[in-house]
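Revision sheet: structure tokens.
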Amino acid sequence: METKKTNAVEKLEKKMEEMDTKSERYRVLQNAKEFKMSWIGLGQSLYTVWKDKMYKEWGYSEFDVYAQKELGIQKITALKLLKSYSYLAKEEPQYLREEYQAQAEAAKVPTYEAVDVLRRAKNNKRLDQENYENIKNSVLNGGKTAKETTKSLACVMKQKEPELPEKIKEQKRKNALKKLINGLLAIKTEIKYAKIFSQELINETEQLMNKIAKEITAKIEQG
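Predicted:
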């Protein structure tokens, strides 16, 4: 049974009909069409287009304008593709080889979103080499999604947060409570001078704000 084509794919194919099948521009469009199946090919093409500023030869002033108008790819997606491909080319070039892509199980081929999270983890100075290697292995060899990778990274970073002394924790809590009191006073003042509320409502609000502020102050003094 023939698969129904999306509007985006149909638009790409229409553009491709007007171009030389041997041109670089045609090749990029072809990779965009196959994007759902293989992001690496598109990432490589986009990297070449961006690096050599080919989009200007094709009538586009900016790379993201070209990506959106010609390929139907939003700026944020195009940038992630660029950065993810660049990361693999620099750090893990073996994953770009055709034999790897041909032999790898589809479920374990990393997505560009997951590689983008991995790229950012690589640049995180707080992450040690061992943790980075574990996350890298889960993405490149385990097929972990961007959501799973982000969650794993967050857990690792949380474990690395230094335990604050009780005295510092208590001071932070008091500072937060003091900010809350200041906020309440500001709201009370706004209501009083706004001249859009009844005197009855103003009085009730002031009483409530004063009561809340009194309880917060008591909490601060109790420590």
